[in-house]
């Protein structure tokens, strides 16, 4: 595996990209879970798929447009979808959760229409749906690196504001936090992370990488910062383990990454139970 990694550029691209995705997906996922917006990742992933399908349709129907990277169109659709979710949340003030299924349904509908117009699925589209080790180009690596730097820098600079806003929006407003701007920044970051993750994890599975490592870390972490650290560790373990398994089994990495994430979650749940059981036994001995 190591010799192949040193020899083949596509493997280097996949692992560099995977390591970056393993960092930013759980990092932004912690704030998503805390804010009880877990399903937003599913909604934006489906609207991202619509952007990818639209890009492939344009390239197929317009001969003068060739070499268009579907990731950019996916990012564009994802950002617009995120902004539209915010708009709908304001329209339905007492039913804010309606915004997510509306966008999810719209994304699925657009995807089906664009795919039908493009005369069905092709190999490239399947690689975006479920991830691919071989499909990651050097341009994708640089694009995802840019997204990673932007997300990490934004969270570092606005960590306090994001933290307060995630737990108590009213307190954040009273404390002088510009809730509207911070929430706008946050939703854009979510859209970019989802679009960036689709090459490795796949559009249909990216939400799992944003939530499963967080779910595992919540079981064993003490405090928010520990949850953040454990989420990133679990995310990296899932991505690296999933990529290695996908390489040897010659399958799409998205599924193996999700399976590793689930195994980590199960281990965390049972670790918590064993720890509590062991603690009770010690108390009984005393």
UniProtKB/TrEMBL annotation:
| UniProt keyword Membrane present | yes
The record's subcellular location field reads: Cell membrane; Membrane
DNA damage among the record's keywords? no
Query: GO terms for CC?
Result: ATP-binding cassette (ABC) transporter complex
Q: Which GO terms describe its biological process?
A: response to zinc ion; transmembrane transport
Q: Please report the record's description of how this protein sits within the membrane.
A: Multi-pass membrane protein
Q: Name one Pfam family in it.
A: ABC-3
- The membrane spanning regions, by residue number, are 14-34, 39-58, 70-86, 98-121, 141-159, 171-194, 200-221, 228-248, 254-271
Read off the PANTHER family from this record.
ABC-TRANSPORTER METAL-BINDING PROTEIN, METAL ABC TRANSPORTER PERMEASE
Spell out the protein name for this chain.
ABC-type Mn2+/Zn2+ transport system, permease component
Question: Which organism was this protein described from?
Answer: Schinkia azotoformans MEV2011
- Taxonomic classification, please? Bacteria, Bacillati, Bacillota, Bacilli, Bacillales
């Amino acid at each position: 595996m190591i010799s192949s990694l040193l020899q083949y550029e596509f493997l280097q691209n996949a692992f560099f990209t995977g390591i970056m995705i393993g960092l930013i997906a759980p990092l932004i996922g912690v704030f998503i879970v805390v804010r009880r917006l877990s399903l937003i990742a599913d909604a934006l992933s489906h609207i991202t798929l619509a952007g990818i399908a639209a890009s492939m349709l344009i390239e197929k129907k317009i001969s003068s447009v060739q070499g268009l990277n579907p990731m950019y169109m996916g990012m564009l659709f994802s950002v617009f979808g995120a902004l539209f979710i915010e708009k709908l949340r304001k329209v339905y003030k007492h039913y804010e959760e309606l915004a997510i299924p509306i966008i999810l349904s719209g994304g699925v509908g657009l995807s089906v229409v664009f795919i039908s117009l493009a005369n069905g699925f092709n190999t490239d589209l399947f690689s975006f749906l479920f991830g691919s080790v071989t499909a990651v180009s050097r341009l994708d690596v640089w694009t995802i690196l840019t997204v990673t730097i932007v997300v990490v820098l934004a969270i570092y600079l606005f960590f306090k504001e994001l933290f307060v806003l995630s737990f108590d929006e009213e307190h954040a407003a009273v404390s002088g936090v510009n809730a509207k701007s911070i929430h706008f920044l946050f939703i854009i970051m979510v859209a970019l992370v989802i679009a960036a993750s689709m090459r490795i994890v796949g559009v249909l599975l990216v939400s799992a990488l944003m939530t499963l490592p967080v779910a595992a870390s919540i079981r064993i972490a003490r405090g928010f910062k520990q949850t953040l650290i454990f989420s990133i560790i679990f995310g990296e373990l899932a991505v690296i383990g999933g990529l290695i398994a996908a390489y040897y089994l010659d399958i799409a990495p998205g599924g193996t990454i999700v399976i590793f994430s689930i195994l980590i979650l199960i281990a965390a749940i049972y670790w918590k139970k064993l720890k509590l059981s062991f603690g009770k036994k010690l108390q009984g001995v005393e």
